[in-house]
Amino acid sequence: MEKKLDMFLLLLQALTGALILLIYLPVIAFWLGIPALAHLAYFLFAPFCHQLPERSFHISGVQLCVCARCLGIYLGIFAGTLFYGVIAKVFFSLKAEKGTKVSRTLRNIILIPLLLIVIDGLLNSLGVINSPGWLRFLFGTGFGFMAGWLLGMGVEDLIKLSADRGVRGKNSACASGVN
């Protein structure tokens, strides 16, 4: 079961890592002199992010595909899935004991970045404040890390559930005399 968890977490990390590379594709395309690649990357992320230049980071004068907050979310998800196995083993008490029930401590830890990103987003959209890019990035990273952690927990729970069903199925077959 441990190998399956590691394999699925590695798959999640590869997928989020690929998304992060796509976010930086316009910069790479600029360096390579292939503007069509940059246009493709912006097009792919357009449905998921507003891509406002004033809310996005720039490298060598080239805007990334997503805003600072979304970049933080993607990097946070990557980091959350990357560290899930290690952190969960060290701080096993943060994991829920049964199924997908989330422990009270973990729930409270998850609520903090969620509240921060919601409050910041709401206040920005209402025009009450205009958070700097680094703060948007920081809140996005915290939220993304918790999302990555929850993805790791969900994958682990699904693997445990499928293993339990497999054991129950084998026991049922053996009890009925089917081998």
Uncertain residue ranges: none
Alpha plus pi helix count: 6
Q: Which value, in Å, is the CA radius of gyration?
A: 21 Å
Query: How confident overall, as mean pLDDT?
Result: 85
The percentage helix is over 70%
For the report, how would you describe the main beta sheet? 2 strands, antiparallel
Overall morphology: flat
Strand content: under 5%
Annotation, overall tally of beta strands: 2
Structural class: mainly alpha
Provide the number of structural domains.
1
Order of helices and strands: HHHEEHHH
End-to-end CA span:
23 Å
Strand order of the largest sheet: 1-2
Task: Walk me through what this model shows.
The chain is an all-alpha fold. It has one domain (2-158). Helices cover 72% and strands 2% of the residues. It is built from six helices and two strands; from the N terminus they run H-H-H-E-E-H-H-H. It has a two-stranded antiparallel ribbon. Strand 1 and strand 2 form a beta hairpin. Helix 1 packs antiparallel against helix 4 (68-90). The chain is flat and about 55 Å long. The relative contact order is 0.14. The model has no long low-confidence stretch (mean pLDDT 85).
